[in-house]
Amino acid sequence: MKKVIAVFGTMDTKGEEYFYLKDQLERFGAETLLIDTGITPDPRYPCSIGPEEVAAAGGSSLEEIKKHDRLYSFEIMGNGSAAIILRLCKEKKIHGAISLGGGQGTLLAAMVMRELPIGFPKMIVSTIANLRTPPFEGIKDTVVMNSLVDVSGLNHILKRGLRNAAAAMAGMVLFGQEKAEETPKKVVGMSMFGVTTPCVERVREILERHGYEVIVFHANGQGGRMLEAMIRDGHIGAVADVTTGELTQELLGGNCTAGKDRLTAAPETGIPQVIVPGAMELANFMPPSSLPKKYEGRRYYMHNPNLKLLRANETESRETGKILAEKVNCSQGPVTVMLPLKGISQYDRPGGPLEDQKADQALFDSIKETLRPDIRLLEFDMHINDAVFAEKVAGELMKLY
């Protein structure tokens, strides 16, 4: 059976480039289905799905779009593209999706890629691939390729880039899904930061020895978002949320926030949870100059020359403890909260550079005071990275799942 790749974008402005990409994909053995997301159809670049159909899927029409501003057009065509391509994906009529463009094209492509499932081949060739910008948030496992030059006329540099993109995309579609992998019966998601690594690695080793598959997420903001997304998509059956520090990052404005929806998917879906307030004493600021003036004079630790870790004080620790407990209180399934009383990160150990027993106690007390009485709460006179504590976490998770 031929594999079909959806090629979508604005044919009225970049039709020549898209049709060159189409030809290269077909040269490498894939079939293509072109979707025009522009608002002015160009007869030189005919597509299987035209802009009228895209606009209708977005809840409007080309005539209506022309009465409004550019933002209205973008939202309608972006939402319409996402709806159509997701439907084609679910119906197995396409086996991959690719788009290219500058800032506007990247934004629209990202709207589509966010909706497509993990494992489905997807690629954006972008002029802004080298920038850490919001368009790339939440695009899951999308391959992002730097176009190096603007997508404006075919030259030998852009042609070479598009050939490489086509080869990579065709390779993913034609050879990357030859055999469907069997989903393990028991999949556990875990959150980890560098300062909680010994605990997480020990828990993972124990669980894997008992037949579980463990997926570890770096609690750097993007990792937390992906953990939440995979729980909602049904990829994860239980979670050992050992590193909930993204909650503190959100409160203090750190670089590693995962947003307000962190620690909501597992409670809402009802999957088993073990919760540990790991790394909840700090917030990342990189570069160090990004530390807000309101925190000047506060206690911090330089993790490396480019990263300053701000220590949460008692008041902030009490607030983050309440936030964690209120989120856990929404749990529909079995859950256990475990408190390592001798420190919640590598730097919060006794004698460590961020040790603050009063702030930790404020965090623990707030959790205990706010937590639902029926939720299991365990306290251990141990540090989070103690091997025995990790064994306790693994044991508790296996009781629940």
What does this molecule look like?
- With 401 residues, the protein is α/β, with parallel strands linked by helices.
- The chain is 40% helix and 18% strand.
- Strand 11 and strand 12 form a beta hairpin.
- Helix 4 runs parallel beside helix 5 and helix 11 runs parallel beside helix 12.
- The model has no long low-confidence stretch (mean pLDDT 95).
Give keywords.
13 helices; 6-stranded parallel beta sheet; 401 residues; 5-stranded parallel beta sheet; 14 strands; alpha/beta
- The largest sheet has its strands arranged as 7-6-8-9-13-14
Number of helices in the DSSP assignment = 13
End-to-end CA span: 40 Å
SSE order: EHEHHHEHEEHEHEHEHHEEEEHEHEH
Short description:
By secondary structure, this protein is α/β, with parallel strands linked by helices. It has 13 helices and 14 strands. Helices cover 40% and strands 18% of the residues.
